[in-house]
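Same chain as my last thread, 91 residues:
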Amino acid sequence: MAEKIRCSHILVEKLSQAQQAMELLKKGESFESLAQKYSIDSSRKRGGDLGYFGHGVMVKEFEKAAFSLEKGQVSEIVKTQFGYHIIKRTA
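reply #2:
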């Protein structure tokens, strides 16, 4: 298992917003532009990029989903205490 991975995410408050962003992703819109447009997290300025992180840094649900992804893969919608995430593993 990887020591550290790099991910980007789109974080929104409502499930309906996450579902809308996911639909746009599936239609071919870029992850980065959707993060800049919809995300409520400060990472939006970097296209959702969260940088590299290891185990024990992110909240449990986020970490479990992120570490289960292959490079380039996008998660399903993940609910945490912060809202609804769509996660993309970039490295």
